[in-house]
Amino acid sequence: MTDKLSPRHRTWNMSRIRSSNTKPEMLVRSLLHRIGFRFRVHCRNLPGRPDIVLPRYRTVIFVHGCFWHQHAGCTEASRPASNTGYWNSKLKANVRRDGRHRRLLRQKGWRVLHFWECEVEKNPAREVMRIARVLRGDAAESTAYNLPSQRELLKAAEARAGYNKLK
Fold first, then answer.
1. pTM beyond 0.70
2. Which of 52, 63, 72, 128 is in Cβ range 3.0-4.6 Å of 25 for a Cys bridge?
């Protein structure tokens, strides 16, 4: 099957795909900040340049795109039908590199969490509360943090991230 786009237009399309500050990543960052976590982003001195780094908790977080990091069982992770040799090797290399980065981070004493784009888009508040439970323990479940409702949390985060999941 031939590409329906000219090589020039395909190049332009591919150049618009972000590797950092993606909408799911921005949403997770906004929600984490809203519930009181402070973090650094895209630390160059760590393997894989994690999306979110919580030095106080010695934890890094990756928010992976389902296609680029091949989320098993996800419909978004299907491989293109054209140029299969290129895409198979490219996507396998991404998965291998992710594993290598996780291993290096763990060897350096970091706890590694990763979340998938589809999970964040379905229920971002749930994914952020999973992070809070890991970092703070079961206390994150309590109302002691006086968290706003999930809808209020999402509205605030989406406004900050420029991401409109609620309509």
1. yes
2. 63
Q: What is the mean pLDDT of the chain?
A: 82
Helix axes 124-136, 23-34, angle to 10 degrees: 50
- 13 C-beta neighbours (distance < 10 Å), count: 10
Measure CA 34 to chain center. Answer: 17
Among 3.90.79.10, 3.30.565.10, 2.40.30.10, 3.40.960.10, name the CATH number for the domain at 19-161.
Answer: 3.40.960.10
What sign has the CA pseudo-torsion 80, 84, 87, 92? positive
Residues forming a β-bridge with 112: 60
